[in-house]
Input
Amino acid sequence: MKIVVCVNHVPDTETRVKVASDGRTIDPAGVNYMLNPYDEFAIEAALQLKEKFGGETIALSLGTDTHKETLRKSLAMGIDKAILLKDNSVRDSYSVATAIAEELRTQSADCILFGKQSIDYYNEQVPGLVAEFLGLPSVSVVVKIEPRDGTVICEREIEGGHEVVETKFPLVIAAQKGLNEPRYPSLKGIMSAKSKPIEERIPKPVPPKVETLAMHKPPPKQPGKIVGTGAAAVPELVRLLHEEAKVI
Ligand SMILES: Cc1cc2nc3c(=O)[nH]c(=O)nc-3n(C[C@H](O)[C@H](O)[C@H](O)COP(=O)(O)OP(=O)(O)OC[C@H]3O[C@@H](n4cnc5c(N)ncnc54)[C@H](O)[C@@H]3O)c2cc1C
Output
């Protein structure tokens, strides 16, 4: 089985992201990056599929040389090889998905795994777009994958429960938290990742269809208000919650 897992390089959740002076992009200065957390579930799923059915696992990322860090982590977790689609142009979900789909057309993978979303731009569009471009079935927010007699049973997380669906390989799966427990890279994995190949390709430029006009932070929170102490403060507190905050 050939399994490709698409991984993104995103700002570390501890990083205080600042808007750049152009007001339209993120200021990269001082930002630490990491492997997108949802993509770790996708990597673990790829490794488990390989352990069960044999074959090859490939990590694929679109971005600048900095994405190699994330690809190395994927290799350290156990992925066999990596591909960097090296690009620094302005891209939206459509142009990111177009470049990924173009590479995947040359791979003929049985299973293409994604995280359910990138925790930087939160678009949740790339997996579905790639599936559409390739004409493949697509299952999102997946918390269980069970290949069975030529079919694949997936469980999806929906409001208040799980939905069970049946489809076939080749397919696109977007992983949700809970799909598995991603393994930590072992020392051996970290050492061997250094010698595993990262192939580089230059994707075709694709103009974005959506342009970012502005980015801004939410307004600072108003300071808290002390309405009094003890039981005597309750009527006023209830009034404010009802009339001002409108939460009761
Ligand atoms: C080269 C480049 C230039 C960009 N330029 C701009 C810009 O100028 N302005 C701006 O606002 N945004 C820019 N972006 C961000 C871009 O718009 C978003 O990354 C894109 O819309 C994808 O949306 P998302 O990150 O929210 O992905 P989602 O759809 O939420 O991601 C879902 C899954 O898709 C996969 N995935 C997503 N991105 C990648 C990737 N790059 N490589 C491999 N797998 C991936 C991962 O598995 C991820 O878990 C750029 C991104 C790239 C790669």
Remarks:
- Residues 6-8, 25, 36, 38-39, 42, 60-63, 87-93, 96, 100, 114-115, 117-118, 120-127, 212 surround flavin-adenine dinucleotide (CB under 6 Å).
- The radius of gyration is 22 Å.
- Residues 107 and 245 are 54 Å apart (CA to CA).
